[in-house]
Amino acid sequence: MMSRNQIGSEPVTSNSQQTSTDQSTLLRKCFEKKKFSWIIIGIIFVILSVTIPIVIIKTKTINITKLSTAPIETTNMISLSTVTSETTTADNPTTEVKSKPKYNKWKQYGITIAGGNGNGDQLNQLIIPSKIYIDDNQAILIADTGNHRIIEWKYNSNNGEVIAGGNGQGKNLDQFERPNDVTVDKEKNAIIICDHGNYRVMRWFRQSRTNPQIFISNIYCNGVAIDKDGFIYVSDHAKYEVRRWKEGDTVGTLVAGGNSNGEHLDQFEGPSIIFVDKEYSIYVSETGNNRISKWKKDAKEGIVVAGGNGRGSGLNQLAQPLGMIVDNLGQIFIADFLNCRIMRWSEGDTNGSVVVGGNGAGNERYQLNYPTGLSFDVEGNLYVADGGNHRIQKYELCIE
Ligand SMILES: *[C@@H]1O[C@H](CO)[C@@H](O)[C@H](O)[C@H]1NC(C)=O
Fold first, then answer.
1. Which Gene3D superfamilies does the entry link to (predicted)?
2. Please, are residues 384 and 368 in contact by the beta-carbon 8 Å criterion?
């Protein structure tokens, strides 16, 4: 009897009149209490269902703006799962650890490992190096833009070796005009070069070095990348697009942009360096839009994953980003050219963080002078093409 009268946590007050005389009144009261509880629960439910999305939308406004194509429900689901994992952190500390990157900090003083001997065309010199590529043997391939050559700097070497070009500025097959990007086709043992000033993409085989080929012509190439299947991606500065090419293609396949220049999510302004990840997502640094956009496979527009808040030096801004590389955790490292710093962003961040530099333009070891490119070696050390200082800086990973 008692237990039947208890609704919720509030016991029904003992009332002899009630219990002895009028069971139906009791039942009615009981029912009303039940109804009342349900109304309360209903109200709470309504309030929660209204406030939770509002809170989430408020905190995630920027994400939603960036992910404007994604249905809001999906975004909320993502947010909710984030909230859940945050609240369970205490019970499950691994949630925290999971999001903490392994490679976190680098020494702030760089070591010059290539160039740094003034600008010139000797083998220990560079002129405005731009893109760098570190191969499996720890050799650094450098697009030595001002010297119209690609130079390979073996590990711990005092000078480089010209592996492509180096025959003066020109249009012959063995010449370049301001090459600004280089990547390696491991399978074919070839290097792919963005021969910017000659409006073409070149291929040199690393072994022979005697048979350079025009891989793509009539393209205002600004960046080249290769995916795990050997497809070549090229950013086109004149057509505001990225195309994917395979051997023998005459037009390639449009994979990003191609909707004239602009700042809409389906457009580019100054598309330059490209990175393609394992899922075939294409990351593009846009010098004109001061942002990095990411185009998932077959997407019709990109999402902004870094910057996109106008040109400036705020932590939420970039100023003419150039070199860019994405690690296995999806962290995006950016040569923030005009800000003379290297930034790191993760997708969804409102602000980036400074990795190295950011101490004004200069040639001290803690400074950069308009960084153009960057890469990592297998140990996680960071390398930066410090364009204006005609040197490549190495920043050792701090082991914690
Ligand atoms: C993000 O960056 C902006 C601009 O630099 C700054 O005003 C703001 O405080 C930063 N927010 C956080 C959470 O660090």
1. 2.40.10.500, TolB, C-terminal domain (2.120.10.30)
2. yes
State which ligand 1 atom lies nearest to the alpha carbon of 316.
2
Tens digit of pLDDT for each residue in 112-129?
999 999 999 999 999 999
The yes-or-no verdict on residue 195 having pLDDT over 80 is: yes
**pLDDT greater than 90 at residue 6:** no
Which overall architecture, per CATH, does domain 104-399 show?
6 Propeller (2.120)
Cα 20 to middle of ligand 1, angstroms: 69
Reported as half-sphere exposure (CB side, CA atoms, 13 A), residue 397 has a value of 14
Q: Which of 60, 309, 311, 316 to mutate to test the pocket of ligand 1 (most atoms within 8 A of CB)?
A: 316
Q: In a 3-state reduction of DSSP, which class is residue 32?
A: helix
Q: List the structure tokens of 80.
A: 């909710």
CA distance 65 to 265: 11
pLDDT greater than 60 at residue 3: no
Nearest atom within ligand 1 for CA of residue 314: 5
* Rounded Cα distance, 231 and 192, in Å: 11
Longest C-alpha distance within the chain, in Å? 111
Nearest CA to ligand 1 atom 12: 351
Q: What long-range pairs does 358-366 form, CB within 8 A, spacing at least 24?
A: 361/388, 363/389, 365/109, 365/110, 365/111, 365/393, 366/108, 366/109, 366/110
Q: What are the residue boundaries of the structural domains of the chain, listed by start?
A: 104-399
pLDDT, position 37: 58
> How far apart (Å, rounded) are the C-alpha atoms in residues 149 and 318?
29
- How many CA atoms does the CB half-sphere of 85 hold within 13 Å? 11
Q: Is the pLDDT of residue 68 over 50?
A: no
pLDDT higher than threshold 50 for residue 66 = no
- Of 218, 170, 161, 168, nearest to 191 by C-alpha is 161
Q: pTM of the prediction? A: 0.76
Ligand 1 center from residue 317 Cα (angstroms): 10
Locate the ligand 1 atom nearest the alpha carbon of residue 351 and give its number. 1
Distance CA 72, CA 334 (A): 29
290 vs 306: CA distance, rounded Å: 9
Q: Which tokens is 203 given?
A: 């291929």
